[in-house]
Amino acid sequence: MSVSGTAEALHEPWRSLRRQREGTSFGTWVFLGSELMMFGGLVLIYAVNRALHPDAFTAGGRETSLIYGTVNTAVLLTSSLTMAVGSEAARAGLRRLALRTLLATIALGCTFLAVKGFEYNEDIAKGMIPGPGFPLEEPAAQIFWALYWIMTALHALHLTVGIGLVSIFTYQYWKLERLHQSPAFEGTALYWHLVDIIWIFLYPLFYLMGRS
Amino acid sequence: MSGLGENLPQTAREIWRRAVPVWAALTLLLGLTCGLAFVPLGSGNVMVALFIAVIKALLVAVFFMHLIRPDPLLRLAGAAALLWLLFMFTLTFSDILTRPRPMQPGTVTPRTFDTPAASGVRAF
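^ Those are the sequences you sent over. The predicted structure of the assembly is below.
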């Protein structure tokens, strides 16, 4: 639904830009609801297994890298700030600010993925892959680590999609192919913030267990 | 272009002024939860960590995702998702936490005793 340079941002079937914007936000929220269901299911698996094997989960949690995890949380929270400012600046027609903060969002998203890559590298070097030769004694610690890989990888996939969306819309905006009134910025921002919220919950589940 | 949120922030200064305090609070809470993880509180550690996570998520949802704006449609859509999650967790844990011990082995945890040989007598 790209908008040509001369056309209005408003298009069929909407009668007003306000309704169009609300429609975009509503549609995104419904989609985010389905995302919450998916991650919620995985968190439920984590919660049930943690209730059944509390000691193994603390032992498994002690092996994750707290430094990488905390740095990445800070990076992602900051990217939410730039994304929020970027979408608001676009709505208000502040082109320079919007372009700068959207670019900062893309850069912070890439930083997160890079740090995650270093962290995965360290995890693999430590042999934290469930299966034969797993370094921890407790069998259920492998469940913890299986969930770690699945959930953080799924989150990274979502962030990659987010970076792609922000990049496309920022490029179109820079090229004057997308008007600043476009509701796409707000829709993308909602998605980005949800990916941030999911990480806010993954952080205590995977990085803060068994530290005391 | 009527009703486009004329009361929403229009200047860069105003936009930053609304967003930065939320980010500062989030960063502060991140430091707090990271520090508290090293304080031995027993099972309280998980509670504290999750409680702080909920506050952080609420900050993002209310301010960054604009649930603070009076739009009932969006608030309902967000609340509906939480409602289904609540059902899922409540129903699952009402099962898991109330299973009597003898029923547990062989279902969700590995079997630790032998099944009694069939005696030909019905239990019920």
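Residues 71-101 of chain B form one domain. Chain B touches chain A through 59 residues (CB under 8 Å).

Shout if you want it in another format.
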